[in-house]
User: Fold Major facilitator superfamily (MFS) profile domain-containing protein from Gossypium barbadense.
Amino acid sequence: METPTDEHGKLSEPFLTSSPSKGGFRTLPFILAMEAFERVAIVGITTNMIVYLTGEFGMETATAANVIFVWSAATGFTPISGAFIADSYMGKYPMIGIGTIIGFLGMILLWSTAMIPQARPYCDQFNTICEAPTIPQLVLLYFSLGLISIGAGGIRSPFMAFGVDQLDERNNSHSFFNWCYVTLMFSSLIAVTLIVYIQDNMGWKMGLGVPVMLMFLSAVSFFLASSFYIKLKPKASLLTGLAQVIVASFKNRHIELPSHATNEVYYVREGSMLQVPSEKLRFLNKACMIKNPQEDLTSKGNASNPWSLCTIDQVEDLKALIRVMPLCSAGIILSVTVNQGSLMVIQAGTMDRHVTSNFEIPAASFSLFMMISVVVWIAFYDQIALPLASKIKGKPVRLGLKQRMGIGLLCSCASMVASAFVECTRRKIATEEGFSDEPQAVVHMSALWVLPFYVLAGLSEAFNAIALIEFCYSNLPKTMSTIAANVSGLGGFTGNLVASLITSMVDNVTKKGGESWVSSNMNKGHYDYYYCLLAGLSMLNFVYFLVCCKAHGPCHGDNENEAENSGLGDHESIDDC
Assistant:
């Protein structure tokens, strides 16, 4: 969080007393345009990147997939670290500004690998023979991708919060969040259709040049309204407080906890409703235990060293975070399965993608169907399924959070089963048609067969990801709302790293017995076995999720007693959470 200051350094409240010459809805189009241009640029190159790495850099499919997994993981992690830096040190405005500049530089360097022949290995496109990339060429490639990830982290981490900073009590912040969702969805749709089409039909010089211009427009859009923005100064972050609890509990690990807790033993923040810590995870209570009041507290009653003595609120915040982590970690394997979209691009590229005799769907554009399935299901669930179920039951009903998360995990497992079946069929047709040694050949099988993967993957996101965000928000304190959003996104970051590890292990183990399962020649490899492996891991992950559900207990606010206390006793949940 950040605290606004006036010209004299006094505290002020932007939502109540912001100057009419600063902020307001007039700044939001610039902020939304900045994020829209950035999103189109990065999603556009990410979706089709595996084609560029295998076709222009001559990488093996497994190697290219690992590069994309690691890059996606970095792009998922940088917003988390960026939020911490923006809240604690830099502030939102400088963070976004620096992010747009770094992202633009990264795009220019990536574009240079397509523009300068010496920046990439020589590839004979007719014989599909490529020289191995040199170390300088790989350094340039990886450095450009790294800059793009850093830039994305600088932009995405604070942009929503920065937009809310511009609004006061007369403005409706919900409208801004609605426009954010529309902007992100529309930008992704443009990326997987228009940008991918340009890359496939006009070449990579234009295909990477357009994202460069988009990143330039992103920076320009943001800086154009600089004089109108409300720019809040940073203060200590909540993440710092959580780190202090860990350090303080470790420092005080040898102290024995009292058998009877009283507010005289523990450090209580002024105005806090918590007077004693909970009995769960008791070892963390040592972080808020006062050993010597003369040494641990100042004359004003504050902690003399916050890294040795923390408040009860800080301790309970960390406990709440630890409690939700097991269920959040179940989303890692789901992210692994959803992130197989890069391999699906290669698979779809070897199938008949014609819709009409004159038009074929770009292989990377099939991810459009994942987005469509998310939107269609959310609309169906909210507008048709729930009202119909409520009418039948005679009272409002809904799927519980844990049940929705579990359904999402099962959908991700089903997506891998469907992918294995489709790949087994495609490989059999390729062999029968004599294409075993021609990985670029198009088999007589419609690429629409890959739609079950994208539809089921979209449903897994619609069920699990949205429920996971609600779960984190409902089970973490309100003071941790920012962290709640980041915690729910950690599965994507970790999932990419796990996906890279699994792909590398499968490649290294299976190629010892001959052709790798994830061979660059899909007609000789066994991607169907690889997908079956992921389906098995997904089912084991579902069992792990059930164990975590039982250990966690009812979700906050979902059991019947709490419903009755809140006046919602007539609201029926299909499960307890």
In short: DSSP finds 20 helices and six strands in the chain. The first strand starts at residue 2 and ends at 3.
